[in-house]
Specification:
The complex is a heterodimer of chains A (about 240) and B (about 400).
Chain A: H1 13-16, H2 23-35, H3 39-42, H4 51-55, H5 57-61, H6 66-74, H7 78-86, H8 107-120, H9 124-129, H10 134-143, H11 163-169, H12 171-176, H13 194-206, H14 209-216, H15 218-234
Helix pairs in contact in A: 2-7, 2-8, 6-8, 10-15, 13-15, 14-15
Chain B: H1 3-14, H2 28-36, E1 41-43, E2 49-52, E3 60-63, E4 67-70, H3 73-78, H4 80-93, E5 97-98, H5 108-114, H6 119-136, E6 139-142, H7 145-160, H8 162-175, E7 180-182, E8 186-187, H9 188-194, H10 196-201, E9 211-215, H11 218-221, H12 244-250, E10 253-254, H13 270-273, H14 275-293, E11 298-301, H15 304-312, H16 314-319, E12 328-330, H17 331-338, H18 357-362, H19 367-382, H20 391-395
Parallel strand pairs in B: 1-7, 4-5, 4-6, 6-8, 9-10, 9-11, 11-12
Antiparallel strand pairs in B: 2-3
Classes of the chains: A mainly alpha (about 240), B alpha/beta (about 400).
The structure holds iron/sulfur cluster (SF4) (2 copies).
Protein name (chain A): 4Fe-4S ferredoxin-type domain-containing protein
GO cellular component, one term (chain A): plasma membrane
Pfam families (chain A): Fer4_8
Chain lengths: ~240, ~400
Amino acid sequence: MPTLSADPYLKRSDATGYGEVDRATKERLIGEVFEDPRFPHYLYGCYECGICVAACPSARFYDFSPRRIAQAAARRDVELLYQQLEEDVWECSQCFSCLRCPRGNNPGGIVTIMREVAVREGLASAKEALAGYSRIIYKIMSTGTQVSPDMLQPDAFPDWGPEVKDVSVNLDLWRRMLPPETMHTTTTGWQVADRTLVELYVIWLETGALDMIAQVDKGIHMILAELMEERLEEEGIEL
Amino acid sequence: MTTSAVNVILSRKERFEREPDRRSEDFHHHLFELEAEGELVVQRVAGEVVEVPTKYGIAKRIPKAHLWHHKSCGQCGHIPGYSTSIFWIMRKLGYDYLDPEDQTSCTAWNYYASATSNQAAQAAVAVRNFAAAYETGFFPLIHCGTSYGHYKEVRSELLHDAALRAQVRKVMERLGKQLVLPEEIVHYSEWLYAVRDEIAQRAVRDVCNVAVTVHPACHYYKLVEGDAIYDPDVYHGQRTAAVSGLVQALGADLRSYSTFFDCCGFGFRHILVQRDFTRSFSTLRKIEVMRAEADPDVVLTHDTGCVTALDKSQFAAQAHERNVGVPVMSEAQFAALAMGAHPFKVCQLHWHSTNYRPLLEKMGIDWRAAWAEFEEDAKRLSDGRQQFLTWADVDA
Ligand code: SF4
Ligand code: SF4
């Protein structure tokens, strides 16, 4: 029986540009994708009809194709999948327009799983894709809300127009002018109860989500771990 | 093709029905089965209920009152008039609600952007929020399109994966909570659709000359599509009726355009660190197409990300003399305006970027007078006479 790499339709390591990474590593990483419990529900095969590509926003502006993702996964083309793990997956918009697939595939879902593997394994490409993203991770994991009003700073969003400056100048006042009491906050989207934050920290720690951060950003992991552990200790919760 | 063949196709499209083998499963049966086996707790839809049609004809039950507002990071963070308008409409129609502090974000924005989370963590965050709602007796109403879509993903994973259920149950035990799933996952725009006639009855501003285009949120109707609303009376049941159904009920001039199905270009990570992509997609594929084909006075959508991407992308595009300049807001803000809400104290339009003033003028709203009122209130707060603006103030 011919081996996978002998199949003329499968990509060779020199063609994908990752010849220096050994085959066992690639197989292990891509194996993690195949073993994810969601994977069998995300791929049923591929007609190569391209309907997903026509619907895909990222395919329009990047060298990216949901069909190529589904196709590589359907063929178990480890070399091509590895290249996509390193290069393509961060271009996907995660809009799931590709669910329009007549075969019932979910290429965007395959990308979600691949990204999770890239982060869990601390790939350099994942670190690079997430550089500049730490403060968002910190915000969501430490406060339970993601976009705080005080993030809306004109230097961070120079292309969003002069209203950004108006908001940041008047922030405290304008927040106090919101009728719902939970929204008078400026450092969180809304007021989150202390007990609720503690519960969230238990979730991050127990499910290993916090450990994933260590793979892509050691500094932010250290700060978050300290914050959460201290807080749980205060509450008398042992993990 | 002969004329008669065309007529046959057109008549079929008038009442569009999907073939049975294309229908996604009805999850309810499975949900109640697992409840009977003691695997989870189902929070029932209760009180006055409206049944709405969904994509494959399965009725979805929307409770009218006693709702637990599951807020949205983006709305509350930088489009606060979005959430405020939802609350305001609910108050005007006389339906009770709870605005909880024991709610966290669904954390899906971060998850889709960075993948620094996993299946179990995402499911546990969802179930913790559902359990918190269940404990109050109020039924969860999900404000964000992404929370809504992601929670439906989580529901499907929990229903089909016993190992995941066991893992989440263990985490919940640590928190002293149960594994709770609601009978329906309801988006606020579904609630607006369900009460659209009541909203239309309470409208005090005529919007029949306002041209509206709708951008439906991907995570609303593409992600776990089965229980999104489709109504034979809205686009012949071929497009989701969320948002558009309300626009029709209000009597506004609903206009179509060819890239209706396209995403807004938000991209989760892209909107923060790769905005050239978001901006290009939003303006070239959505706003410019709408302008060329439908010339709308306003774009209405029902998700935080879409309002952000479509609204904020237009400023820079203007510098390149692109054909942009359409105000963007949620249908909740638009409906509130039609019902007489204050454009700044309730709808908080000053947080938006694209010029909404011509729209207000078309709706018969004196925005200069309204802004002067807002500034008067602001003065009261800034000189310490009052600390916060309350519902009583905005309704005065
Ligand atoms: S989820 Fe990703 S692959 Fe699918 S259509 Fe959206 S951008 Fe394309
Ligand atoms: S739409 Fe589905 S079957 Fe067609 S190319 Fe894309 S993944 Fe393959």
